[in-house]
Amino acid sequence: MTVDSLPSGREAGELAPVFLDRLRAIIRNRSVALGGIVLIAIVLMAIFAPWLGTGDPTEINPALRNKEPGSTFVKRDDEGNQIRQTFRFGTDSVGRDVYSRVVYGARVSMTIGAVVAVLSVGIGLALGLLAGYLRWLDVIVMRLMDGLMAIPTILLAICVVSLSRAGLAAVITAVVIPEVPRVVRLVRAIVLSIREEPYVEAAVTLGTPTLRLLVRHVLPNTIPPLIVQGTFICASAILIEAVLSFLGIGIPPEMPTWGNIMAEGRSLFRIYPHNIIYPGIALAATVLAVNMLGDGLRDTLDPRFSKRL
Fold first, then answer.
1. How confident is the model at residue 14 (pLDDT cuts 50, 70, 90)?
2. Which residues are paired to 85 by β-bridges?
3. Residue 26 domain-assigned (yes or no)
4. pLDDT tens digits, residue range 210-257?
5. Mean pLDDT of the 13-38 span
6. Could you list the residue range(s) of the whole structural domain that residue 99 is in?
7. Considering the domain boundaries, does residue 179 fall inside one?
């Protein structure tokens, strides 16, 4: 549903059935349902990590190193009582619980994915609106975006991280920079097509201020494609973070992330594959769920795809 398809005088009460029909279509979409369920489960796992984890993900115990999944360890507390601890996913080369590290790693991945998506869409939306509507600014902005897009995403991210101290903020910045041009180009294309619509030309003729025209007439048309684009950016950000951490230039090793877990276990993969298999499954499931959610939203929000439903 776009602004140009709705008369300006239509009352809010008449929009409710249209909104509800679109919401029902989204919920009935299998990709949205399956991807949403898996994604919600992963988000809940990240939120309740302190309760779902079986121990401190950073605690090192050389006596428990490289334990197989399902191994049990019995220890005594200060009062002499026996405490039985089961390592569901085994332990790594320094005795840390892989299950707890995978659970806590979801926090970092989901945080980076969400923050990168919001920042990329926000910055790209602002630049895209200005570039698409202000002709004199279009050339400057788009040449800059073309220059950024000419550099491979992972290479640009590595360069940005290398210029700063490794950490969460550096990784987020390194992923946002290559994602912004894609959003700018998307928004600019939408604005260029809307700018020539009769209702926009009428608003310009009536002397509507540029800011009000962009917010009221142009911005609503960009929301559905930006929602879809945001999901794909989230999935891409999670993957790029894992790659950077795997290469040892992303999140510091002491912070549990899926990339760090796999990086630390790669040297012993043939002997103890559990150090890579379990975080790899978590990473693949998360990216797949986000991409399925994005595909489903595209099918229902984009009129060209919704006709197939």
1. very low
2. 73
3. no
4. 777 777 777 777 888 888 889 889 999 999 888 888 888 878 888 888
5. 70
6. 43-306
7. yes
pLDDT at 245: 85
Closest by CA to 167, choosing from 58, 255, 49, is 255
Split into its structural domains, the chain has a count of 1
Tell me, what CATH number does 281's domain have?
A: 1.10.3720.10
pLDDT of residue 12: 41
**Mean pLDDT throughout 68-93?**
77
**How far, rounded to the nearest angstrom, does the alpha carbon of residue 23 sit from its chain's CA centroid?**
22
Q: What is the 3-state secondary structure (H, E, C) of the chain?
A: CCHHHCCCCCCHHHHHHHHHHHHHHHHHCHHHHHHHHHHHHHHHHHHCHHHHCCCCCCCCCHHHCCCCCCEEEEEECCCCCEEEEEECCCECCCCCEHHHHHHHHHHHHHHHHHHHHHHHHHHHHHHHHHHHHCHHHHHHHHHHHHHHHCCCHHHHHHHHHHCCCCCHHHHHHHHHHHHHHHHHHHHHHHHHHHCCCHHHHHHHHCCCCHHHHHHHHHHHHHHHHHHHHHHHHHHHHHHHHHHHHHHCCCCCCCCCCHHHHHHHHHHHCCCCCHHHHHHHHHHHHHHHHHHHHHHHHHHHHCHHHHCCC
Query: Which pLDDT value is given to residue 10?
Result: 42
| 5 is a domain residue | no
